């Protein structure tokens, strides 16, 4: 595992498998009466979030604290960037305090890569974890999605996973299509033509997934997992679809589609990275169904982020030349 985690592509197949296996061990901590291990004692982790977050920020904070790290949260509005300070000066100031890792979410795609590059160029030893950068990637979300699916479905080899919704604006989609096919899953991406990124066909061919625009056809084929994506209206400057109702009719997991999903494959499961727009991309019946893994994903998020922090900070990094 490299010194930073900026993309799923930073993990080779061995590292990907190791992070998921370690997460299974870390998950046991949640079942203890005293949820504390000394793994990261003496380490300091800064959660630097320039975008709002409930699940990611809280789970990184819990992950650090359960491993005895000193964890500090800083928001964009609570940092000197709100006074006009540049991102470069802000992160270099934080790193100069001797912190071991910065977990960063930023609205600009590539921001985490830029910060890691600044640190590497200047010899700063602080690790950077990408907690979501614009519409680019969200690697730990993809890791927890894979972990959650494996816990319910077993090996993902040959399992059929459909990722549905606002693909254009989804960093979750971009990370999952880099991880799930490598674990053996057969991934189909379904979206309205207006929410499918340009060049998607070449991309799909390169990374081993297929494209579709008919959700009902995909459901009737008998998928093993249906991953619904949030409609990110805050990133939409134009009319990507006429009305919310039209989107739901064409691409929402409605009550009728839930019934069709179960009929085609009674063991099929439902995922959503959250937050959910109930009634838009997913009906309340689907979000709360017995087959829904939404809360399992939240629980898995803590275990996976414990695993990531462990491999970055407690297994010889960064003092042993960048490999764990």
Automatic annotation (TrEMBL):
Group of enzyme by EC: transferase
The protein's annotated pathway: Pyrimidine metabolism; UMP biosynthesis via de novo pathway; (S)-dihydroorotate from bicarbonate: step 2/3
Keyword DNA repair appears in the UniProt entry: no
Binding site for carbamoyl phosphate: 55-56, 105, 138, 141, 274-275
Keyword Transferase: yes
Function: Catalyzes the condensation of carbamoyl phosphate and aspartate to form carbamoyl aspartate and inorganic phosphate, the committed step in the de novo pyrimidine nucleotide biosynthesis pathway.
Annotated L-aspartate binding sites: 83, 171, 230
Lineage of the organism: Bacteria, Bacillati, Actinomycetota, Actinomycetes, Micrococcales
Protein name per Swiss-Prot or TrEMBL: Aspartate carbamoyltransferase
Quaternary data: Heterododecamer (2C3:3R2) of six catalytic PyrB chains organized as two trimers (C3), and six regulatory PyrI chains organized as three dimers (R2).
InterPro entries: Asp/Orn_carbamoyltranf_P-bd, Asp/Orn_carbamoylTrfase, Asp/Orn_carbamoylTrfase_sf, Asp_carbamoyltransf, Asp_carbamoyltransf_Asp/Orn-bd
Name of the coding gene: pyrB
GO MF, one example: amino acid binding
All residue ranges annotated as the Aspartate/ornithine carbamoyltransferase Asp/Orn-binding domain in the record: 157-312
């Amino acid at each position: 595992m490299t010194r930073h985690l900026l993309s799923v592509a930073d993990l080779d197949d061995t590292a990907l498998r190791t992070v998921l296996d370690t997460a299974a061990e870390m998950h046991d901590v949640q079942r203890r009466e005293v949820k504390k291990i000394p793994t990261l004692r003496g380490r300091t982790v800064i959660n630097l979030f320039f975008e709002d977050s409930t699940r990611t920020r809280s789970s990184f904070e819990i992950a650090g604290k359960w491993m005895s790290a000193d964890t500090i949260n800083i928001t964009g509005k609570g940092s000197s960037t709100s006074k006009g300070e540049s991102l470069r000066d802000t992160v270099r100031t934080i790193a100069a305090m001797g912190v071991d890792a910065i977990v960063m979410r930023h609205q600009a795609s590539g921001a985490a890569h830029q910060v890691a590059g600044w640190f590497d160029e200047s010899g700063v030893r602080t690790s950077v974890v990408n907690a979501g950068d614009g519409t680019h990637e969200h690697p730990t979300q993809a890791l927890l999605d894979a972990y959650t699916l494996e816990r319910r479905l077993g090996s993902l080899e040959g399992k059929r996973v459909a990722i549905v919704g606002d693909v254009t604006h989804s960093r979750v989609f971009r990370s999952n299509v880099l991880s799930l096919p490598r674990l053996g899953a057969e991934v189909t991406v379904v979206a309205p033509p207006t929410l499918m990124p340009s060049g998607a066909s070449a991309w799909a061919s390169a990374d081993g997934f297929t494209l579709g625009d008919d959700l009902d056809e995909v459901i009737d084929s008998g998928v093993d997992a249906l991953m619904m994506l949030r409609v990110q209206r805050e990133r939409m400057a134009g009319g990507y679809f006429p009305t919310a109702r039209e989107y739901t009719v064409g691409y929402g997991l409605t009550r009728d589609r839930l019934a069709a999903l179960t009929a085609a494959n009674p063991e099929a499961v439902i995922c959503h990275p959250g937050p959910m727009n109930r009634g838009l991309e997913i009906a309340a019946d689907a979000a709360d169904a017995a087959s829904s893994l939404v809360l399992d994903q939240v629980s898995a998020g803590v275990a996976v982020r414990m695993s990531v922090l462990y491999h970055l900070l407690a297994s010889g990094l960064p003092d042993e030349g960048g490999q764990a």
